[in-house]
Every structure is written in structure tokens, then in C-alpha cells.
């Protein structure tokens, strides 16, 4: 007889990030809205984008759609690993020209955004592998591990260590790292990342490095890719995405990089890359070819300039929000090179108390920090990915909150 997946069933009942946000955060927002119909709401909870697609991307999408509408130029299935031109563009225009590292196109696999890649990549590894995630963390890392029924270890991120964890003290096999970090917005230094790379090489562990927000980094002395760290090509898989810096949250295009030099216990050079090719061909045949043509355009010289303007827009939002919060005495963590602000609750309030007080006093909606892990207690995450006028109005509303703290 058929039986249910117990690991999946264990996540039902407000135990996932999406359930918590939509069933608890937004339920409280709706209660507030009903009681205060004339009041403004400033949604800074989700990491959804607000800026339109770059013009170069729109033109490429229209051109690709027109080709699909003509029998003479119609194409069907794309290469299962991704459009070769897109893989080449990521290799050349992203890694080599922007980051300064050499990644072969064959080491890049196109995905439908980062979300599925960061969870599904665990299928490369044995079921008993121990997974380490930051606490607080992007929930998909933890939830994907629980769904796979793998052992889970937390890497403590607190005010004391600037929300950048120390290397594991116990033996772990898979380490999830995310910088610039979601939710805290902090960025790791070369030295901090070198410690994790050294650990992974010593213990034949693998780092899964979420670099989705790396295009927001403006400091030349800050790593934007794990592959800038010596030895990382031997122990790290990197996940990238067009979602935030090219407004692809609706188009869904990302990638994961699996170097040929990545080797773990009982594998040889290139084996993990080949295994992922097999898995890719069985379970995923790539995102829509139209969307991939748009991604190619985003990496063109014109597209890059237009994407730069989008990132600059969001970073200015970050500056405005942080400035407003700090002007009324609230402590903010995270880098100015990130679209997230990690703000400490006032007067020793819990995360949910602070969420409610900020909502009722200003109309600002964030996500309680403890949703991201126990070390998020007493904090709130705000997103700067909204419209500028909304951000400006939200900052103005903080004046009323200042009188209460």
C-alpha cells in the first residue's frame, strides 16, 4: 500500500517559512488593516522585487517570442543543462569579467532561479550526510534538509560574532553559507570564508554558497564569489540567480556552478559534475527558453548597465531605511551592500512584539527575526526591494515610532 512521506508531513502546520509569513504575519496585517482602514501599509516583508525588467531584457524576450511564433525560426526543447550561449555568458561576463575567476561553461547548470537549486543540490549527496546551516538562516536551507530527512547542525550567528558563524566544531558534510546574507544582510570577509574553505578541504565537506545577492556588493575588497577564496574550486558549489539584480523573480532563471575540480570521498575529478548532469536530465529540463534569452540579454553590456541601475536603486532604498531607523535610535546590522536590514527590537521586545508595535505605530511590515531561527529572536528583517516612494513614506512614518521608544 502507498504511504505518505513522513518528512514532508512533518512540515505541515505553520512549520515552513511560507506558511508562517502568509498565515501568521499577513493574518496580523489583515487584522490591523480591518481596524485601521485609513492607515497606510508599507510592505517590507518579502524579498520580492519592484523594478521592471531592463529594456534590453524586454527586447530580447519579445524577439525570442516572435521567433517561437514563426515556423521558420521555431525551436523546442533547450539543452537540459541550459542554453549554451547563456552558460558561456555567465562564464565570461559574470565570472571572468565581473568576479575575476575562471569558470568553464560546462561547469554551469541553468536552473529556474536559486530556490530549487539550493534545495535540490542535496540530491548529489548520501542521505546520511550531516548538513550545517547558519542560525538565523534562509529557511529553504533548513527546510530542504528536513525534507530530505538529513541530520541538521546549526552554526550560531549572533551579535557577538557579527552574525558570521565560526567554522563547525563537529564533523559536518555539507555547509550552507549565504553572503550577502539573507536575512541579516551581513557580508563575510575573505579571511572568514577562507576558514570555511580550509575546513571543507580538510574534512572533504562541501560548501553550498548562496551568492544570489553578490551583485549588490560594491566594495572591491569584499568577496562576491566563494571562488575568489583559495581552494574553493575543490570544495564549493555556488548558486546564482537573476532574480534580484535583473528583476527575474517572475521569469525564474538562475544557475549552480559545480567545478570539475570538486572532489569528495570516493569520487574523482569531474564526477560530481557528471552526476548532476545525469540528475538534471532525469528531473529537470531547464527553464523556458524565452526566459533564458532574456538572461543572455541581462549579461550583455547594455543589459549590465541597466541591471546596475536596478541594484543602485535598491541600495539607495537600503540607505534610506537604515538612516530612518538609526535616526530614532534603533540598532541596525548588515551591510549597506545588501537589500536587507536586520534591525534590533526596541526596549527588549520579542521579535513578534516588535513586529506588532512597528506595524501598529508606523504601518511598516517586516518579518520577525525568530522566523529565521532561534538566534533571530529580538530582531526584525526588512526588505529594501520596494518602490522608492513607499520607502520614503515608510521612513517618514518612523517619526511617530520615535516618540514611543
Description:
The chain is of the alpha/beta class and 405 residues long. It has two domains: 12-47 and 303-402, Aspartate Aminotransferase, domain 1; 55-300, Type I PLP-dependent aspartate aminotransferase-like (Major domain) (Aspartate Aminotransferase, domain 2). It is built from twelve helices and 13 strands. It has helices spanning 6-9, 17-35, 55-68, 84-99, 114-120, 139-147, 190-203, 271-283, 289-298, 301-327, 351-362, 388-402, and strands at 42-43, 108-111, 131-135, 152-156, 174-178, 206-210, 236-241, 254-257, 332-333, 340-344, 364-365, 367-368, 379-383. The protein has a seven-stranded mixed β-sheet with strand order 2-8-7-6-5-3-4, sandwiched between helices. Helix 4 (84-99) packs parallel to helix 9 (289-298).
Amino acid at each position: 500500500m502507498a504511504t505518505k512521506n513522513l518528512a514532508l508531513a512533518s512540515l505541515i502546520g505553520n512549520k515552513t517559512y511560507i506558511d508562517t509569513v502568509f498565515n501568521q504575519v499577513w493574518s496580523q496585517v489583515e487584522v490591523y488593516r480591518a481596524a485601521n482602514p485609513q492607515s497606510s501599509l508599507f510592505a517590507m516583508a518579502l524579498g520580492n522585487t519592484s523594478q521592471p525588467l531592463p529594456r534590453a531584457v524586454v527586447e530580447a524576450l519579445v524577439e525570442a517570442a516572435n521567433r517561437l511564433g514563426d515556423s521558420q525560426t521555431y525551436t523546442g526543447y533547450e539543452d537540459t543543462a541550459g542554453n549554451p550561449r547563456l552558460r558561456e555568458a555567465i562564464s565570461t561576463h559574470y565570472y571572468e569579467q565581473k568576479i575575476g575567476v575562471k569558470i568553464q561553461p560546462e561547469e554551469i547548470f541553468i536552473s529556474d532561479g536559486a530556490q530549487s537549486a539550493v534545495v535540490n543540490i542535496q540530491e548529489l549527496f548520501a542521505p546520511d550526510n550531516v548538513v550545517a546551516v547558519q542560525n538565523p538562516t534562509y529557511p529553504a536551507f533548513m527546510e530542504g534538509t528536513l525534507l530530505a530527512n538529513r541530520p541538521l547542525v546549526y552554526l550560531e550567528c549572533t551579535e557577538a560574532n557579527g552574525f558570521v558563524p565560526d567554522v563547525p566544531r563537529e564533523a559536518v558534510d555539507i555547509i550552507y553559507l549565504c553572503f550577502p546574507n539573507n536575512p541579516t544582510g551581513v557580508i563575510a570577509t575573505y579571511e572568514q570564508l577562507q576558514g570555511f574553505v580550509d575546513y571543507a578541504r580538510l574534512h572533504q565537506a562541501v560548501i553550498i554558497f548562496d551568492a544570489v545577492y553578490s551583485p549588490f556588493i560594491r566594495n572591491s575588497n569584499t568577496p562576491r564569489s566563494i571562488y575568489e577564496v583559495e581552494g574553493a574550486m575543490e570544495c564549493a558549489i555556488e548558486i546564482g540567480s537573476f532574480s534580484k539584480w535583473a528583476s527575474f523573480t517572475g521569469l525564474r532563471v538562475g544557475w549552480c556552478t559545480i567545478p570539475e575540480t570538486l572532489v569528495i570521498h570516493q569520487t574523482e575529478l569531474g564526477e560530481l559534475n557528471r552526476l548532476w548532469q545525469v540528475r538534471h536530465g532525469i528531473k529537470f529540463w531547464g527553464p523556458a527558453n524565452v526566459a533564458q534569452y532574456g538572461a543572455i540579454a541581462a549579461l550583455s553590456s547594455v543589459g549590465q548597465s541597466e541591471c546596475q541601475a536596478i541594484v543602485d536603486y535598491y541600495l539607495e532604498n537600503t540607505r534610506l531605511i537604515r538612516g530612518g531607523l538609526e535616526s530614532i535610535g534603533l540598532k541596525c546590522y548588515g551591510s549597506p551592500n545588501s537589500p536587507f536590514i536586520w534591525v534590533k527590537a526596541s526596549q527588549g521586545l520579542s521579535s513578534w512584539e516588535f513586529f506588532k508595535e512597528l506595524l501598529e505605530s508606523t504601518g511598516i511590515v517586516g518579518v520577525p527575526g525568530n522566523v529565521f531561527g532561534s538566534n533571530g529572536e529580538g530582531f526584525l528583517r526588512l526588505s529594501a526591494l520596494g518602490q522608492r516612494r513607499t520607502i520614503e513614506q515608510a521612513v517618514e512614518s518612523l517619526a511617530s515610532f520615535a516618540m514611543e521608544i
